[in-house]
Amino acid sequence: MASSFLRFIWIAFREYWGVWVTGTGIVGLLLWGLSFIENVVGWKMRPRHYIATLFCTFWFLATFSAWHDADKNLSSVINQRIADGAQLGGCKADLQVQTVRMESWQERFADQQRTINALQGPQLKQQATINSCVTSLGKMNPILTTRIEAYYIELDVKQDLGFYEMLITTNHPETPSGRIHCDGAFQPLTPAYIHVFGLGIVMQLAYQPPRAISDRDYEVQVHNTGASWGPNSPIYFAFRTSDPSHLGKCKFTPQ
Fold first, then answer.
1. Could you tell me if 231 and 187 are in contact, meaning their C-beta atoms sit under 8 angstroms apart?
2. CA torsion angle for 72, 73, 74, 80 (degrees, to 10)?
3. How far apart are the C-alpha atoms of 104 and 99, rounded to whole Å?
4. Count of domains in the chain?
5. What element of type H or E holds 35?
6. DSSP 8-class letter at 13
7. pTM summary value
8. Could you read off the pLDDT of 84-104 as tens digits, one per residue?
9. Element (H or E) spanning 18, and its range?
10. Domain limits at 99?
């Protein structure tokens, strides 16, 4: 408290009192006023009274100037805080909108997952029968050249959220494991499944997305599906990318 008071005295004396004394015509005006009063009253003031009157007058003006500038600075700070508060309110509103959008997408994805889980049981027996038929047909009509393709489609074109489906197809039954590579960076969101056309998705028992090798390469492993990767049952998983225009082509290499 004492140091603040002494600092105020020093600033008022150095920056304001000296300016009023040396930089204005108040000194001459006061001296003329005192002289005029002496002539009217007929009383002669002592020099020390002159000095005390001038000092007190300029000290009052100096302290008033210091208070005025401090009050002006305080008003400026208050106005700036009001403007910053309004800007912060706008940022909070934008954040709430983005949060609601993300929660909506998560709810839709959870609903799809529950539907898939409900259909999984009856599909396993049907898939076993289809696998037997596909294997028999493959033995009867051997394919000389294996062709593997990886392509993707956008989940929701209207909202443009950057969510895609990856489908990895083959024209010959293969072990559903390998490495997926795309020209641009992407991030898998779901585990890899075997998707049987006409039946839906057969879920694997592992619940982790493909393992990251880099932001463009991932190791895909599908275990315990009850289905085999073949012409009618591609590998499927959902992923997200922040820059769809640079995603480019994707290639799957079996292991």
1. no
2. 110
3. 9
4. 2
5. helix 26-41
6. I
7. 0.42
8. 877 887 788 888 888 888 888
9. helix 18-22
10. 1-142
pLDDT band at 195 (very low <50, low <70, confident <90, very high): confident
Average pLDDT of every residue of the chain: 76
CA distances from 174 to 4, 36, 195, 235 (A): 82, 115, 14, 11
Q: State CA 192 to chain mean position distance.
A: 28
User: Residue 74 corresponds to which tokens in the numbers above?
Assistant: 């305080």
Element (H, E) at 96: helix 47-140
The answer to whether residues 167 and 245 belong to one domain is yes
Q: Which amino acid is at 233?
A: S
Whether 175 contacts 222, CB under 8 Å: no
Q: Give the whole-angstrom CA distance, residue 225 versus residue 124.
A: 8
Query: In the beta sheet, which residues pair with residue 149?
Result: 169
**Calculated CA dihedral for residues 79, 81, 86, 90, nearest 10 degrees:** 150
User: Contact 217/252 with Cβ under 8 angstroms?
Assistant: no
Same domain? 196 vs 120: no
Are the beta carbons of 181 and 217 closer than 8 angstroms?
yes
The first and second tokens of residue 147, run together, are 């062709």
- The model's pLDDT over 98-129, given as tens digits with 9 standing for 90+, comes to 888 888 888 888 888 887 777 776 767 777 77
The pLDDT-based confidence of 16 (bands split at 50, 70, 90) is low
Six-digit token pair at 190? 């779901």
The conformational region for residue 110 under phi > 0 = left, psi -120 to 50 = alpha, else beta, is alpha
Residue 174, SS3 per DSSP: strand
Q: What is the DSSP letter of 25?
A: S
Q: Strand, helix or coil at 197?
A: coil
> Which residues 6+ apart lie within 8 Å of 183 measured at CB?
216, 246, 247, 248, 249, 250
CATH at residue 190: 2.60.40
SS3 at position 124:
helix
